[in-house]
């Protein structure tokens, strides 16, 4: 019998939570097959079977385990059941199955989904109810059927009209409560956010950037960029490049306080805030100042995919000298991001929205984005924070400057 113990996942981590069993008690598992999912205060990781055999689970889902605790045992002497696949548990696919998967993976031209009405063949309603739905143009997904065989009746339609905004199936004036144990990751996020608010002299400065030139550049070169580099040209590479130039011009924004000392960084390790299934995670792009646009985009995709699949390692989330967060993907127009301690500043991106602005004495419509930089006023002065943000605005509104970090004509004239 082999003991499977909770592995060491970091110097400061002493306990983890058993999130989920991926294999059941008594099931035969192959060597290196994933059997369980554990969560520390910083990341989610998997536990693999060290040998093939019959699994004996020890911990239960939701249990808090110490590093080194036995989470499962494997009886390697147990005979392998007939028909059990080897390796990772997947049977080799036949050629026909592979062809079917390839066909299924091909993109299909997007067509707007039709609004479901009583005329649809999969919706059952009485004639009176169907007429009311058609007349009032009601989305049948908002109606809870109560008729025989799941049929919508007149009363159901009247209920939907009388109580608009109520989710289907929810009782009127319901007051249900639900309690859920806070995960280690959520506890850590909560603690760090409160610590940032309580231990830093945090202040936020705002500006706005005209995204016209960046958007035109993306539209012009996105197909060639994808063909050449195999990755989409997104906004994050433009912002990361601009941030790296600005950080090197204003080194205090790229520093942090350590006791009675200020630690300055000659490199830019950019943390990217990502909303993962388990909560907010902040993986790091190392030496972003040395990467090309394509390399930055590839790294962003890699880290975001790992975050979504809970595959980020501890090393990929440690460190970082400056953070970028993009609330615009969720529709945020403006916000005050909280510093990712021990860093001293964070840049908040927001939704791009067409707005009227004054340009050369004329009112024009431009795609505008509000930018916000929250910073620790103990180390960064107002002049530095504002100048830092203005520099980012200048680089984004003139993306040709991202090549040298300055205006090409000024560089030619040595100005």
List the helices and strands and how they pair.
Elements: E1 2-5, E2 15-21, E3 28-29, E4 34-39, E5 44-48, E6 53-57, E7 64-66, E8 70-75, H1 95-105, H2 127-136, H3 154-162, H4 184-199, E9 202-210, H5 212-229, H6 235-249, E10 256-258, E11 261-263, E12 270-272, E13 274-276, E14 279-281, E15 284-285, H7 293-308, H8 314-317, E16 322-326, E17 345-349, E18 352-359, E19 362-376, H9 382-397, H10 408-412
Parallel strand pairs: 12-16, 16-17
Antiparallel strand pairs: 1-8, 2-4, 2-7, 3-6, 4-5, 6-8, 9-19, 10-11, 12-15, 13-14, 17-19, 18-19
List keywords for this structure.
seven-stranded mixed sheet; 10 helices; four-stranded antiparallel sheet; Chloramphenicol Acetyltransferase; OB fold (Dihydrolipoamide Acetyltransferase, E2P); 415 residues; 3 domains; 29% helix; alpha+beta; Dihydrolipoamide Transferase
Would you kindly provide a written description of the structure presented here, covering whatever features stand out?
- By secondary structure, the protein is α+β, with helices and mostly antiparallel strands.
- The protein folds into 3 domains: 2-81, OB fold (Dihydrolipoamide Acetyltransferase, E2P), CATH 2.40.50; 127-162, Dihydrolipoamide Transferase; 202-412, Chloramphenicol Acetyltransferase (2-Layer Sandwich), CATH 3.30.559.10.
- 29% of the residues lie in helices and 23% in strands.
- The protein is built from 10 helices and 19 strands.
- It has helices at residues 95-105, 127-136, 154-162, 184-199, 212-229, 235-249, 293-308, 314-317, 382-397, 408-412, and strands at 2-5, 15-21, 28-29, 34-39, 44-48, 53-57, 64-66, 70-75, 202-210, 256-258, 261-263, 270-272, 274-276, 279-281, 284-285, 322-326, 345-349, 352-359, 362-376.
- Strands 9, 12, 15, 16, 17, 18 and 19 form a 7-stranded mixed β-sheet that branches.
- Strand 18 and strand 19 (362-376) form a beta hairpin.
- Helix 2 runs parallel beside helix 3 (154-162), helix 6 (235-249) crosses helix 7 (293-308) and helix 6 (235-249) crosses helix 9.
- The relative contact order is 0.10.
């Amino acid at each position: 019998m082999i003991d499977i113990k909770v592995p060491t996942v970091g110097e400061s981590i002493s306990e983890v939570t058993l999130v989920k069993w991926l294999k059941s008690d008594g099931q035969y598992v192959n060597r290196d097959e994933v059997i369980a999912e554990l969560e520390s205060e910083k990341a989610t990781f998997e536990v693999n079977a060290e040998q093939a055999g019959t699994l004996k689970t020890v911990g239960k889902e939701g249990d808090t385990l110490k590093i080194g605790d036995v989470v499962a045992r494997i009886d390697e002497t147990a005979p392998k059941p007939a028909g059990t696949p080897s390796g990772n548990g997947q049977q080799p696919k036949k050629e026909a199955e592979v062809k079917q998967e390839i066909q299924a993976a091909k993109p299909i031209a997007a067509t707007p989904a039709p609004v479901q009405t009583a005329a649809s063949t999969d919706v059952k309603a009485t004639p009176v109810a169907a007429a009311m739905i058609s007349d009032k143009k009601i989305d049948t997904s908002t109606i809870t059927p109560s008729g025989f065989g799941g049929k919508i009746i007149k009363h159901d339609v009247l209920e939907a009209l009388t109580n608009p905004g109520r989710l289907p199936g929810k009782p009127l004036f319901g007051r249900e409560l639900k309690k859920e144990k806070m995960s280690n990751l959520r506890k850590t996020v909560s603690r760090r956010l409160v610590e940032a608010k309580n231990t830093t002299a945090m202040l936020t400065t705002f500006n706005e950037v005209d995204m016209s030139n960046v958007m035109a550049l993306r539209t012009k070169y996105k197909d060639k960029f994808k063909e050449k580099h195999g990755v989409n040209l997104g906004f994050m590479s433009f912002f990361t490049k601009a941030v790296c130039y600005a950080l090197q011009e204003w080194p205090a924004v790229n520093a942090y306080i350590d006791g009675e000392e200020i630690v300055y960084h000659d490199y830019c390790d950019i943390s990217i805030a990502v909303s993962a299934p388990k909560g907010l995670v902040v993986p790091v792009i190392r030496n972003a100042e040395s990467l090309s646009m394509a390399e930055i985009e590839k790294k962003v995709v890699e880290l975001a995919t790992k975050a979504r699949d809970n595959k980020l390692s501890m090393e990929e989330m440690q460190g970082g000298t400056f953070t970028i967060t993009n609330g615009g993907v969720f529709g945020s127009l403006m916000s005050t991001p909280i510093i990712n301690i021990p860093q001293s500043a964070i840049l908040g991106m927001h939704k791009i929205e067409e707005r009227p602005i004054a340009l050369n004495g004329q009112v024009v419509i431009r795609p505008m984005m509000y930018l916000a930089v929250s910073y620790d006023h103990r180390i960064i002065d107002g002049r530095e924070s504002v100048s830092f943000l203005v520099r980012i605005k200048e680089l984004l509104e003139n993306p040709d400057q991202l090549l040298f970090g300055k205006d090409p004509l000024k560089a030619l004239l040595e100005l």
